[in-house]
User: What shape does this take?
Amino acid sequence: MENILPVPQHKNKPGTSTGQQFWHHGDKTIDSYSPTDGSLIARVYASTRADYDRVVETAQAAFAQWRLVPAPKRGDIVRQMGDQFRLYKSDLGKLVSFEMGKSFQEGLGEVQEIIDICDFAVGQSRQLYGLTMHSERPAHRMYEQYHPVGIVGIISAFNFPVAVWSWNAMLAWVCGDVCIWKPSEKTPLTALACQQIIQDVLRNNDVPEGVSCLVSGGRDTGEWLARDPRVALVSATGSTRMGKAVGVAVAERMGRSLLELGGNNAIIVSNNADLDLAIPAIVFGAVGTAGQRCTTTRRLIVHQSLLPEIRNRLARAYAQLRIGDPLDPTVHVGPLIDKDAVAGYQKAVADIREAGGTFIVEPGTLTGAGYESGCYVKPCVAEAQNHWPVVQRETFAPILYVIPYTTLDEAITLQNSVPQGLSSAIFTLNLREAEQFLSVAGSDCGIANVNIGTSGAEIGGAFGGEKETGGGRESGSDAWKTYMRRQTNTINYGATMPLAQGITFEL
Ligand code: UN1
Assistant: This one.
């Protein structure tokens, strides 16, 4: 795998970068194992605190220059980055698939998300709009403008090892910010590859060293970003536990955070659903990325009259799933990220059984030829109850819970009765049901879909969710505003000094 991408060819890869430069000082390494075959694919040097401080100082200096580059010019640089990702789409998609374990198709899809957000950001670079207001005072003008916030720290998760970085970085860059990326310690190599892929663009455009930074490490490194008052915004994607720690640390120093945390996404299948549409959407939603998307379908809230048919159809569909090497184009489901994730899956299965749940599609861990890494599990479907603790928590694995309902009100209540609030969907051909689901009294999630599944959001919409999902919004719509500070300006072009609210103040 090492020669397909312009990853630095040292035996151990330097894991700290300010753009064109890569280096390391300490000796601590992060080992990247492919869950596909368990092999050690790279060793990346972890950033030391001194490395981190050098990165932040370089980023600060870069910001002073980068913010002066006109936004459409910054957009043009992002456009060139998009071209680079087009060039390396297949190679990077393959590396994502190999390092993380998602199917090659999904690896390609992830790189496509980078390309899409680059295109979006280019357009956005000419649309950093503020409003104008009419002043209550004569000969006064009011308007607002948006300025960059400064350094944006990006903490990303293993499951979308490159796309989530790009949603943040590409927007942040057109806004005039500089970025420090801390990728997941489970996928350090794909991050290095991205940094390499954009290197020529940075160099050819004389982008100051420090606009695109990378620090490698675990929890400590994330904490440095969260606690550092020099980092204006911390955008963190990952577990709710991690997000709470980051959110508290950033709030304590009055910084800004953008949190995109766990989901517990449900699809409601009404008795008015077109099941030919619903079944493939459910199966892709539940088993895509081996159930490790934050948008994965975890709960299926099914009209009780449909239960026998849903059981049959799901059993038939799951029987066709091919589990194995994600780079094999015929495979639907690759491995989980590591053995800890397998243990999490096994714990959830045990909890379901203990609570009295039964399986429509049986769980299991795969062994033998092709499964030597010990990370392959069988996607399973359980009949369960919504209030069970195992159903209430997010297990990053392909486990789908089927929960029956009788009235749509009840289904919506079940759908909302979890701590998380990311994505949701209803399958129905009934207009009243669809609109009720989307209404103020409907889904409480950041994403609510009709007749499509919970995962696979396009980058054009704002992405994120409510409650324990953290409230942040990334990628499309007006998510760019999070990366900027708003300034309200009032200008007096007259010859008198009237006060607002009609106050008189005579001297
Ligand atoms: C994530 O799992 O962190 O909507 C992001 C989706 C993808 C992004 C998922 N576009 O499933």
User: Anything to note?
Assistant: The chain has 15 helices and 24 strands. The mean pLDDT is 96.
